User: Fold this.
Amino acid sequence: MGLTPVHFFSHGSTMMLGEKSESADYWKQCGDEALARNIKGVVIMGAHWDCLGDKIEVATNPNPDKSPVAYVHPDKYINYKLNPDLATAERCISLLSNEGFNVSANPTFDWIHDVYLILIHMFPAGCPPTTIVSMNARYDPHYHMKVGSTLRSLRRENYLIIGTGGAVHNLYRNRWAPMMRFRDNFAMETPPEEWALEFRQAIEDVITKTSGPQLRRAMTRLMKHPRFRDAHATDDHFMAAMFVAGAVGDFDDVGTAAVMAAESWELTNMCNSQFTFGSWDRGVAAA
Ligand SMILES: [Fe+2]
Assistant:
């Protein structure tokens, strides 16, 4: 068996949980494909959980609650049963610890919409065993890339690795009025602004035109792009992209094709691009 594909998903606003979209359709398609291949579980890094100092944590709460979300009817998520994978969590802790990370279990962490929004769309009939790895609040791109490269070997064991963040995600520059007034998160009274289009294109170019270590270099370098700070007022929603670059940026991943398979613009300036690296059909280069 080759290596499983890796996803970088842009979860967008909380309304993406309750609304239909091209992105949500693609998430479901990816979930169906993963279930058809009998994945062992999901290993996921989000954008809403980080640890201070040099720490990183892995979720080990056996009965996690869900942090509530605004602008979504509770029926859309309240009864969805989460499925924490405690054995794989311990495995991830061991792998990360062996690589020198200051990593520990967090047995009280409640899951946040960046993760369960994606899981609900991907796997509406039931959550597969899932392991959440936190970010580190220093937001060092190379650190998060190394987290991904450390866990990359799980792809060989039929785990699905996902990063959930955002391609263009600056809450300070979104146009919120149509969502606040009409609950319309997809309203587009004007085209997106130039900086948003520019950075969105830069990400697509990096992901679809590079692979292997070149992908890692190009992804981390995106944080030096002249439009990065316009596209990301804070670094949190870009860390999962670094994690993904680590998970699919080895020398053995050279030549792995990546696609931007769906995209949903929200709130005029937020670009929710959905990327997949590799495929189920063509095993990624075996080491
Ligand atoms: Fe978010």
In short: Confidence is low (pLDDT under 50) at residues 283-287. The first strand starts at residue 6 and ends at 10.
